[in-house]
Protein: Small ribosomal subunit biogenesis GTPase RsgA
Amino acid sequence: MNTPTDAGLGWSAHFDRQLDAGDTSPRARIVAVHRDRVEALTPDGPALLRTPEETGHYAVGDWVLHDGVHVTRLMDRETVIQRRSAGPVAKDQLIAANVGTLGIVTSCNDDFNEARLERYLAIAAAGGCLPMVVLTKADLTDEADDYARRAQRLSPLATVLTLDAREPEEARRLDPWCRDGQTLALVGSSGVGKTTLQNALTGIEAATRGIREDDAKGRHTTPARALRRTLAGGWLIDTPGMRELQLSGVAEGIAEVFADIEDLTTACRFRDCAHEAEPGCAVQAAIGDGRLDAARLERWRKLGREDRYNSESIAQARARFRAAGKMHRHGKTRGDWKRGDR
Ligand SMILES: Nc1nc2c(ncn2[C@@H]2O[C@H](COP(=O)(O)OP(=O)(O)OP(=O)(O)O)[C@@H](O)[C@H]2O)c(=O)[nH]1
Ligand SMILES: [Zn+2]
Structure:
């Protein structure tokens, strides 16, 4: 592999603007995040760097400044993909940074699910990435175009492609989104063909084992999150199948994906219209004359509830943490005061 320049690694004017003129500190792009180090690529080759804070603050795709041993600065991200981590403690988890395009991979079969696509589209919109829907296994159905139309209906902004991921020439149709230093991230359920696409785009043979016939969901074959060079001269981020995907803090992303509904709500007679049975409800009117699908309205409500719930539980967890700290200090003062009062 010839060594890419900063621009070849994805450095852009967005990062230049964060530096003082003439600042020539060495730069590196993070390709993998480990427990106590980050692995990075520089125009001079790979580097293993220590970080001043927990490595959890860094994401694959991040740009940093460094002194050869330590990260000295984390650059503001151009885009970021994050989700609420699975588990009892509400916490945002970074998935990837500085991703130009989010490639949402699903197959032309039972994996295709409108609600899940909208969820990923909202994450792409909230993170600032271009949305793309890649429909694999088009070779196994006569209805690939129908799937494409259904996907396109969810977001007019998204690029929608149907293909057989196992055919390298077809997979290489993704090249325009991962060439000249541009970064593409692939997300989607296990078994939809992310590894197959990655192999074709990078020329690197990762372990793709055939999924068992009786296991429609597929086996988990992706080892770790990583940034890889593509044959087209860009970058590819492949994240492990994202199960338990939860939204949080992506209200703007939801508004963008469901712009059709949000536009309608502005025409409702009442500002606090719940779009149930209120007179003059523009949303119900659109359902009535077939401009809006009632199921889409229901999915919009459900995602909105989920986002509010998760965002609130994260805010509440932070508030509880702060309150516990305060109580500790105040408890002491109040005890002193009580004793003095007696
Ligand atoms: N017929 C057909 N098979 C495909 C296509 N894409 C992937 N497959 C097959 O589906 C299986 C799973 O593909 P993978 O690339 O491993 O799926 P993945 O998304 O990487 O799965 P995880 O690593 O578990 O996240 C493999 O047997 C692939 O050969 C396609 O477009 N058409
Ligand atoms: Zn209404």
Q: What stands out?
A: Residues 77 and 98 are 6 Å apart (CA to CA). Residues 250-311 form a domain with the Ribonucleotide Reductase Protein R1; domain 1 fold (CATH 1.10.40.50). The longest strand covers residues 27-33.
